C-alpha cells in the first residue's frame, strides 16, 4: 500500500485528549513530539495502526448519523460553544503551538484568532449556503417543482500540516463539521498535541466524539485514506499530495488537496514601495518562511527596482531568528527542511545570484536568518521549487507583461500579490493562481467568505467560504411533479403532434441568433 511520509501531519500535546482513539499504553507503540527550539520532548503520543484508524472511522460513522441529523441551528449552537471554549483558552493553545512548532507566541495567537473567526463564519453561514432552496424549472418542465440542497458526505478524514497546525486544518475541520459531517483528524507527527487539544475541547463543548484524532507517522495517514472515509482533505507538499491521491484511489475516495506554492509579488511602477517592502518581508519571513502562501519571488518594475531593494534590505537587516524572546523569527520546525533551504541558496549563488542579506551562512542548526537574493536565474531551484524558508528572490522586469509571464512561469498556482495604485485588478486578473491580494499580502486567507486553494501543482478543491462548505457535501436535486404535463414528452404516449409542438417551442425559445456587440464578435 502507499505509505505517506512523515512531513504531513499536525501537532503534539502532552497526554491524551478526549475524542482520540485512546492514549499510550504499555503495549502500544508511541512517538515523541520535540521542541524545535531545544530538542526537548513536548509530549508522547500513540502510533495508531490501521485497526485503530478503522475503529475511529467506524465510531465517526455512528456519530455522523446523529450530528448530520441535527438542524443547522443546533449545530451552529454547539460549534459556537466550542468556539467559546477555544477563545477562553487561546493562551493555552498558543503556548502549545509555540512549544511544538517553535513559532513566536504572537504568531501562534494570530493563527488561533484567525481559526476562531473562520469557525464562527462556517457555523453561522452553513444554513444559508447549504439549506434546501427552490430552483427554476424552465418552460419545458413548468409542471415540475425543483429543489436543490447540499447534504453532508458522512465522515471526512483530515490530514493536517505542522506549519499552521490550527488555522490550516480548521479550514477543513470547521467547515466539514458545519456542513454536518463527523471528522477524523490526523495531525502532523510534529504537532500531535495540538490536534489532541482541539478534539478534547470539542468533546467538552459538544459531549460526543464527532471530532476524533488519530496520531502517528505516515502509515497512520495512509490508513486513514483507506479506512472508508467519504472524503480526505489534505494539506502538505505536492509530492505527498500525490501519494495521498494514490492511496485514496484504491477506494475511489475523493480528495481536496492544498499542496505547495511558489507565490510571487508583483511591484508596479506606481506602488507604495515602503508598504510593498514591508509586506514582502513579512510574507517571506513570517513563521520562518514556512507558509504555503508565503512570498518566495518578487518581480519589480525596473524604474523602481533599486528603491524597492533599498527598502527591503534595510528592513530585512532588522530581523533575526533565534531562541530569544524578542526574535521575530522562530526555528525551522522540520529539521530536514534546512537542507532544502541551504541547497536553494547555494544553487542560486552558484549560478550567478547574489545575497544582499543573509546567504549561505544564514542556515544554522535550527534557525535560518532572512535572506534576500538577486540576479537569480529563472530556472534555478530558488525560483522554481518551494523553499519553505525565510528567503526571497527579487528580479527586475521591463514591464508588467514580463512580470506576469514570470509569475505564471512555475508549475504552482496557489496565491499571489500585486502592489499597484492604478492597475492592481487588471494585473491580478492575468495571474494564474487561486488567490490574489492587492496592496497587501496573504489577506485572502484571513477573509472567511473567500475560498482558499490553488491550481496546478498547488492542488485542487477549496476550503473556506461557501465553496469550502460545499466541498464537504454532495448536491441533492429533487424534481416533484406538480401537475400533469401539457405535452407527455417522457412517455410512450407521445405522438408526432407532440414532437412537432416540441420542435416549435424549442425553435421559438432558442432558434434566434443573438446580435452580439462588435467587441464580442468572433475575430474581434
TrEMBL record:
Residues 26-478 form the Aldehyde dehydrogenase domain. The active site is at 258. PROSITE patterns: ALDEHYDE_DEHYDR_GLU (PS00687). Signal peptide: none annotated. Pfam families: Aldedh (PF00171). The keyword RNA-binding does not apply. The keyword Ribonucleoprotein does not apply. InterPro entries: Ald_DH/histidinol_DH (IPR016161), Ald_DH_C (IPR016163), Ald_DH_CS_GLU (IPR029510), Ald_DH_N (IPR016162), Aldehyde_DH_dom (IPR015590), Aldehyde_DH_NAD(P) (IPR012394). Keywords: Oxidoreductase. CDD domains: ALDH_DDALDH (cd07099). Residues 24-36 have a biased composition (Polar residues). Residues 1-43 are annotated as: Disordered. Belongs to the aldehyde dehydrogenase family. This is Aldehyde dehydrogenase.
Amino acid at each position: 500500500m502507499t505509505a505517506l511520509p512523515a512531513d504531513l501531519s499536525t501537532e503534539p500535546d502532552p497526554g491524551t485528549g478526549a475524542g482520540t482513539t485512546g492514549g499510550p499504553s504499555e503495549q502500544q507503540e508511541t512517538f515523541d513530539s520535540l521542541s524545535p527550539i531545544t530538542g526537548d520532548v513536548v509530549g508522547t503520543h500513540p502510533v495508531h495502526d490501521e485497526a485503530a484508524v478503522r475503529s475511529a472511522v467506524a465510531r465517526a460513522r455512528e456519530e455522523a448519523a446523529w450530528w448530520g441529523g441535527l438542524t443547522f441551528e443546533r449545530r451552529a449552537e454547539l460549534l459556537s460553544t466550542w468556539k467559546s471554549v477555544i477563545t477562553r483558552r487561546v493562551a493555552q493553545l498558543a503556548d502549545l503551538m509555540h512549544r511544538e512548532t517553535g513559532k513566536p507566541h504572537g504568531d501562534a495567537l494570530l493563527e488561533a484568532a484567525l481559526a476562531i473567526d473562520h469557525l464562527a463564519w462556517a457555523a453561522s453561514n452553513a444554513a444559508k449556503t447549504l439549506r434546501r432552496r427552490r430552483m427554476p424549472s424552465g418552460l419545458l418542465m413548468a409542471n415540475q417543482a425543483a429543489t436543490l440542497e447540499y447534504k453532508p458526505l458522512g465522515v471526512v478524514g483530515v490530514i493536517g500540516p505542522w506549519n499552521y497546525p490550527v488555522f490550516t486544518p480548521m479550514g477543513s475541520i470547521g467547515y466539514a463539521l458545519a456542513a454536518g459531517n463527523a471528522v477524523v483528524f490526523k495531525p502532523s507527527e510534529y504537532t500531535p498535541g495540538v490536534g489532541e487539544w482541539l478534539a478534547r475541547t470539542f468533546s467538552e463543548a459538544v459531549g460526543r466524539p464527532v471530532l476524533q484524532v488519530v496520531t502517528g507517522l505516515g502509515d497512520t495517514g495512509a490508513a486513514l485514506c483507506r479506512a472508508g472515509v467519504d472524503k480526505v482533505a489534505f494539506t502538505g507538499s505536492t509530492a505527498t499530495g500525490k501519494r495521498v491521491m494514490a492511496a485514496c484511489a484504491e477506494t475511489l475516495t475523493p480528495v481536496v488537496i492544498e499542496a505547495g506554492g511558489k507565490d510571487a509579488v508583483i511591484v508596479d511602477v506606481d506602488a507604495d514601495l515602503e508598504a510593498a517592502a514591508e509586506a514582502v518581508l513579512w510574507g517571506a519571513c513570517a513563521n520562518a518562511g514556512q507558509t504555503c502562501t508565503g512570498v518566495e519571488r518578487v518581480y519589480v518594475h525596473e524604474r523602481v527596482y533599486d528603491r524597492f531593494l533599498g527598502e527591503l534590505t534595510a528592513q530585512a537587516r532588522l530581523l533575526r531568528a533565534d531562541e530569544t524572546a524578542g526574535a521575530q523569527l522562530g526555528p525551522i520546525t522540520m529539521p530536514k527542511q534546512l537542507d532544502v533551504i541551504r541547497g536553494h541558496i547555494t544553487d542560486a549563488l552558484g549560478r550567478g545570484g547574489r545575497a544582499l542579506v543573509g546567504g549561505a551562512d544564514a542556515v544554522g542548526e535550527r534557525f535560518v536568518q532572512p535572506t534576500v537574493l538577486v540576479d537569480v536565474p529563472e530556472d534555478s531551484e530558488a525560483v522554481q521549487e518551494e523553499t519553505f524558508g525565510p528567503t526571497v528572490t527579487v528580479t527586475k522586469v521591463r514591464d508588467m507583461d514580463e512580470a506576469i509571464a514570470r509569475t505564471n512561469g512555475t508549475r504552482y498556482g496557489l496565491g499571489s500579490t500585486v502592489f499597484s495604485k492604478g492597475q492592481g485588478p487588471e494585473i491580478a486578473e492575468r495571474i494564474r493562481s487561486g488567490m490574489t491580494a492587492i496592496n497587501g499580502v496573504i489577506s485572502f486567507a484571513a477573509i472567511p467568505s473567500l475560498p482558499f486553494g490553488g491550481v496546478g501543482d498547488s492542488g485542487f478543491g477549496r476550503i473556506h467560504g461557501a465553496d469550502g462548505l460545499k466541498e464537504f457535501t454532495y448536491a441533492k436535486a429533487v424534481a416533484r411533479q406538480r401537475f400533469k404535463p401539457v405535452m407527455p414528452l417522457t412517455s410512450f404516449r407521445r405522438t408526432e403532434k407532440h414532437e412537432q409542438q416540441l420542435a416549435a417551442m424549442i425553435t421559438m425559445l432558442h432558434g434566434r441568433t443573438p446580435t452580439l456587440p462588435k467587441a464580442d464578435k468572433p475575430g474581434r
